[in-house]
Specification:
Blueprint: E1 4-7, H1 32-41, E2 45-51, H2 53-56, H3 62-78, E3 85-89, H4 105-113, E4 122-125, H5 128-137, E5 141-145, E6 160-162, H6 165-169
Parallel strand pairs: 1-2, 1-4, 2-3, 4-5, 5-6
Length: 173
């Protein structure tokens, strides 16, 4: 069984704007490559889990998402980081799907695809729905990153709150 680092995309890997779906709109947050190289060196699988309601809302297509994802994964590779898998939920809120965080469908798919030890795994997200998904799935460790958001630390279920993914990875060991 392997430990995994589950990572939300928008607001954790890249700066969050309204429904980022074009390469020219995608801006990596400072320190992301360094952080994920360190996580990989510590033996973590790197699994991106991302709600993409813009697909379900008709703002962009799933092909647009796949094109951007392919480019993002290649950018990671060019910077010495292997992303093991990217899972996405294309559904709009209220669709009743089982994959949109705070539901656990994307995590469940990862568990089917990889032998993951949730007790030694972590999830990093920038919204409470990310943390709720981690708790529901049984991921033992979870970190909420501010990434420019104001967070009331008294109202989160997250075990830790950090400014960025780079800060969060420092907690991994």
């Amino acid at each position: 069984m392997k430990k995994a680092l589950f990572i939300d995309r928008d607001g954790v890997i890249n700066k969050e704007y309204d429904y980022v779906h074009k390469i020219e709109e995608f801006e990596f947050i400072d320190g992301v490559f360094e952080a994920l190289r360190k996580a990989r060196e510590l033996g973590y699988l790197l699994i991106v889990i991302t709600n993409q309601s813009g697909i379900g809302r008709g703002y962009y297509s799933e092909d647009d998402f796949f094109k951007l994802t392919e480019w993002m994964v290649e950018a990671f590779s060019e910077n010495g980081v292997h992303i093991d898998r990217v899972y996405h939920c294309p559904h709009a809120p209220g669709s009743g799907c089982d994959c949109r965080k705070p539901e656990t469908g994307m995590i469940d798919r990862a568990l089917n695809d990889f032998a993951i030890d949730l007790k030694h795994s972590w999830l990093v997200g920038d919204k409470e729905s990310d943390i709720q998904a981690a708790v529901k799935a049984g991921i033992a460790n979870h970190i909420l990153v501010r990434s420019g958001h104001k967070i009331d630390e008294t109202k989160t279920a997250a075990k830790h709150v950090c400014d960025t993914l780079k800060d969060a990875v420092e907690l991994l060991g």
